[in-house]
């Protein structure tokens, strides 16, 4: 992060990171720093000048988020209107105008070609930031003209500190959300702020405790239900994975104090004695695979059936 803040901003920047990794937040801070009126300080936004107040309220006339009409596609006309033509207009209150294009991977090839010249030689007053889950989805010609910043997963301690300091969440809830997040602050936040958090946790726990004797319809029903809690099946499987990682940890270390599901030590201990290391790894992998498949809208019943079989098979 620090290296991005210089006396002169990079004019064409790609910020890459998975969903929930904080691309929007980072680009807002970067843009805020560029637009901030406290010029002597440079670097980070001061947070209290007129420019920073407007940037925080998303009313800054020189901070532009480029919209697109179709949800799954950014077309040539989107980028012509939102960037290529608009970038010629001079800033109205700050020294720069900052253009942010979220979901840049949704640009088709024509749209990417249409912005090539713009990002290669933007006007001196302009900064362009492309946000993307995958810089690899952008043409080489785009990538080679931009500075690329990749957001890395955060440490568990950083996630825990965020939950404590910003959301005032501590204890076992913070531990489950941190383990669930696997370095992704957006994931931690979404589970922590879920109104049905307690119900979700209980549902997962009771399913997991009975898993060895469960039949497939119970898993099927649980997955059907997750929508009402504003979760995806992948989220639910993520919570299940935390349980199996607990089982693995207990098997390896035998220390109940280190478990996320500490209040379920008996069930975890039981599972640890039944399931082999290999079996646990297979189950954790199967949960991840099933989550990805369901996200990609692959046949739900078949995916759950395969997952269920994998859990059963590896649980003995
Ligand atoms: Zn400021």
Q: How would you characterize the overall build of this protein?
A:
This protein is of the alpha/beta class and 316 residues long. The chain has helices at 23-35, 50-56, 76-84, 109-120, 140-143, 156-165, 171-181, 185-192, 197-209, 216-225, 233-253, 265-274, 277-295, 300-314, and strands spanning 12-16, 63-65, 97-101, 126-132, 147-150. Strands 2-3-4-1-5 form a 5-stranded parallel β-sheet, covered by helices on one side. The protein is elongated and about 65 Å long. The model is unreliable at 1-6 (pLDDT under 50). Bound molecules: zinc ion (ZN). The site of zinc ion has 8 residues, from α2.
What is CATH's topology name of the largest domain?
Rossmann fold
CATH architecture of the largest domain: 3-Layer(aba) Sandwich
Which regions are unreliable across 5 or more consecutive residues at pLDDT < 50?
1-6
Q: Please report the total strand number as a whole number.
A: 5
- Evaluate the radius of gyration: 23 Å
Structural class: alpha/beta
Q: Order of strands across the widest beta sheet? A: 2-3-4-1-5
Specify the CATH class of the largest domain: Alpha Beta
Helix tally?
Answer: 14
**Could you give the distance between the termini?**
47 Å
Mean pLDDT: 92
Heteromolecules bound: zinc ion
Name the CATH superfamily assignment of the largest domain: P-loop containing nucleotide triphosphate hydrolases
What is the domain total for the residues? Answer: 2
Shape: elongated
Beta-strand residue percentage: 5-15%
Q: Please summarize the sheet with the most strands.
A: 5 strands, parallel
Order of helices and strands: EHHEHEHEHEHHHHHHHHH
Q: Specify the helix fraction band.
A: 40-55%
């Amino acid at each position: 992060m620090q290296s991005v803040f210089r006396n002169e901003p990079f004019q064409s920047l790609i910020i890459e990171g998975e969903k929930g990794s904080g691309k929007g937040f980072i680009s807002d801070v970067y843009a805020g720093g560029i637009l901030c009126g406290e010029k002597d300080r440079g670097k980070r936004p001061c947070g209290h000048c007129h420019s920073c107040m407007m940037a925080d309220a998303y009313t800054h006339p020189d901070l532009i988020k480029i919209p697109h009409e179709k949800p799954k596609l950014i077309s040539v006309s989107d980028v012509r209107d939102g960037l290529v033509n608009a970038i010629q207009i001079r800033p109205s209150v700050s020294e720069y105008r900052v253009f942010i294009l979220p979901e840049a991977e949704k640009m088709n090839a024509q749209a990417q070609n249409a912005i090539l010249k713009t990002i290669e030689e933007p006007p001196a007053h302009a900064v362009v930031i492309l946000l993307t889950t995958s810089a690899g989805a952008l043409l080489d010609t785009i990538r080679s003209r931009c500075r690329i910043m990749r957001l890395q997963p955060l440490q568990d301690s950083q996630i825990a500190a965020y939950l404590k300091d910003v959301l005032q969440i501590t204890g076992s809830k913070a531990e489950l959300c941190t383990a669930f997040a696997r370095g992704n602050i957006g994931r931690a936040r979404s589970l922590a702020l879920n109104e049905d958090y307690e119900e979700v946790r209980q549902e997962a726990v009771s399913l997991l405790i009975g898993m060895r004797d469960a039949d497939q319809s119970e898993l099927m029903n649980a997955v059907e239900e997750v929508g009402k809690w504003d979760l995806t099946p992948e989220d639910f499987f993520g919570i299940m994975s935390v349980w199996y990682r607990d089982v693995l940890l207990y098997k390896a270390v035998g220390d109940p104090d280190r478990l996320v599901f500490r209040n379920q030590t008996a069930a975890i201990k039981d599972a640890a004695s039944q399931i082999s290391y290999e079996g646990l790894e297979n189950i954790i992998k199967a949960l991840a695979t099933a989550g990805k498949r369901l996200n990609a809208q692959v046949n739900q019943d078949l995916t759950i059936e395969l997952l269920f079989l994998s859990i059963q098979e590896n649980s003995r």
